[in-house]
Amino acid sequence: MRFRRLVFGCGVVAAAMLATSSLALAAGGLAGTYTTTVKSPAQLQGKWEITFAKGGSYTVRMDGETVARGRYASTATTITLDRERGSGCTGAGTYAWNMVALRRSGRTVTFTKKRESASCQGRALVLSHRFAEVR
Predict the structure, then answer these.
(1) CATH of the domain at 112
(2) At a CB cut-off of 8 Å and minimum separation 6, what does 128 contact?
(3) Domain contains 4
(4) What is the pTM of this model?
């Protein structure tokens, strides 16, 4: 009986630690700056940079110039971008995200569109590219 309580107690502690680490990943997992290069269409060509701040805001730059700012909320697997100013995008977009650590070149993140506003197709096109974390 004592052994069962010990095993159960360890299981509860392990589950709590896992939940805590998942929440920590969701809160700060995407925080950082990422870049990609878009080659087409012509109006989106350039070096794109997106910075996710820990407080839930993001900034988008194209060739060094700020083109949009907004708010985001993320979990360990999804991100919702909303309240974007500067781009003409007038709605929320939800994307699945996946972070991959590469041996020599750091981390990359990919976004897969789940839902996007009709006015935000430019955002969807840019986010369809693989982004590399800036060191």
Answers:
(1) 2.40.128
(2) 111, 113
(3) no
(4) 0.76
